[in-house]
Amino acid sequence: MLTLYVHIPFCKARCPYCDFYLVTRPEQIHAFFKALSLETASRCADLKGETVSAIHFGGGTPSSVPVGLLAKWLDNIAALCSFTHDLEVALEANPEDLNTTSMNELRAAGVTRLSVGVQSFIPEKLHLLGRKHSPLDCQRITAEALERFNSVSLDLICGVPGEDLAIWEDDLRLALSLQPQHLSLYMLSVEPKTRLHHQISKGLISFPDDETQASLYENALREIALYGYSHYEVSNFCLPGHHSRYNLASWKREPYLGFGPSAHSFLTVHGREIRMANVSVLSRYLAAPHNAGVFREELSREEQFIEKVFLSLRINSGLDVEFLRKENNLGQDFSGSVDQFIEQGWILQQKGFLYLTDKGFLFADYIAGALIFG
Questions:
Q1: Who contacts 318 (Cβ-Cβ below 8 Å, separation ≥6)?
Q2: pLDDT, position 332
Q3: Which of 308, 336, 338, 313 is nearest to 323 (CA)?
Q4: Domains present along the chain, CATH in parentheses
Q5: Per-residue pLDDT reduced to its tens digit, 233-286
Q6: Is the pTM of this model over 0.85?
Q7: Given a cut of 70, is residue 329 above it in pLDDT?
């Protein structure tokens, strides 16, 4: 079984907090899709005989490109592999790109899941985040999307400069009142070289401290649980059966292929685990799409172990204690760390598995590092 990721690198503008690879040159969209077709054809050996269960269009902003180009690529990929009967085709979208016509076209093209980047329903937050849509746009588009797609996911950001618990509670409740099947909740992070980083480093705006951010996150976990959502990954919540199939497969380290500039792939070849990455410059990608890969490595046993620990703790299926004991070649005794984290209320140990508590999710990477390296 295989999942696919397609990086659509186009945005109308870069948000002040964003450090994903993107360009703001729509005149290159058609050239990109021509290159994408060539790259896809060059990967036919990786696709032959495979069955694909999920396809995820990310970016960038996939909703900013003509739907017909997405539909044509889906037709091309269908000729190179098989699909499961319940194939999930997910697409990330900005509210301002969506209307009744475009959503009908996306549904007709085969998109089954829409991930809407609302980020907030609070006008002041939207302004600080550089978003162009209004709260009313978000509500209207979400309601229409729920009528058309099997699953609708909303992205929300908390911890915006100036945000307090009252603002965050209003934001979250507005999102929950719409009853989407999935929520992705992200703590705002300050990435180097972004406009947000510049504003904070110059003292133009102040960033909430760690204690404030933690309180916002913990409040969200309590509120979301009341609405019946499962907390299945650090930042992701869903109603039964509506998890992101591509993302969950990636966290479980199942094989996936990535297409487009900056896309990553993970494959198992004759028992060897291989990670690959494409070039992160559109002009270089357009020049040689059949040879877009710039990075390839075979993971050592130690690297596989580290990845499994970090990723297993992120999801609610837990980390197998016996695996942790047998596969750890780093010579570390993790039992003391486990006891400490249980005492702190960060992890639970049940039936031979370690699970992060709601509070523990705040420290997922720290806990994983302690279990691996001591």
A1: 312, 350, 353, 354, 355
A2: 63
A3: 308
A4: 2-250 (3.20.20.70), 302-373 (1.10.10)
A5: 999 999 999 999 999 999 999 999 999 999 999 999 999 999 999 999 999 999
A6: yes
A7: no
> Residues 80-86: what's their mean pLDDT?
97
Q: Are 16 and 27 in contact (CB under 8 A)?
A: no
CB 74 within 8 A of CB 89: yes
Preceding omega of 60 cis (within 30 degrees of 0)? yes
Considering just the CA atoms, what is the radius of gyration of the chain in Å?
Answer: 21
Give, in order, the Cα–Cα distances in Å from 345 to each of 44, 321, 339, 340: 49, 18, 10, 9
Of 253, 128, 114, 272, residue with least CA distance to 188: 128
d(CA 26, CA 188): 28
Residue 330 in this model has a pLDDT that exceeds 80: no
Q: What is the pLDDT of residues 173-191, one digit of tens each?
A: 999 999 999 999 999 988 8
**Among 374, 356, 345, residue whose Cα is nearest residue 319:** 356
Read off the pLDDT band of 70 (50, 70, 90).
Answer: very high
CB atoms within 10 A of CB 175: 25
Would you say 160 and 125 are in contact if contact means Cβ atoms under 8 Å apart? yes
Find the angle CA(104)-CA(21)-CA(175) to the nearest 5 degrees. Answer: 50
Quote the DSSP letter at residue 23.
B
Token pair recorded at residue 12: 């109308």
- Of 313, 324, 298, 311, nearest to 252 (Cα)? 311
CA distances from 220 to 60, 122, 159, 210, 348 (A): 27, 16, 12, 15, 20
Question: Once rounded to an integer, what is the mean pLDDT over residues 30-59?
Answer: 97
- What is the tens place of the pLDDT at every residue in 146-164? 999 999 999 999 999 989 9
| Segment holding 152, helix H or strand E | strand 151-158
- For β-strands 182-187 and 151-158, DSSP reports them as parallel
**Three-class secondary structure of residue 101 per DSSP:** helix
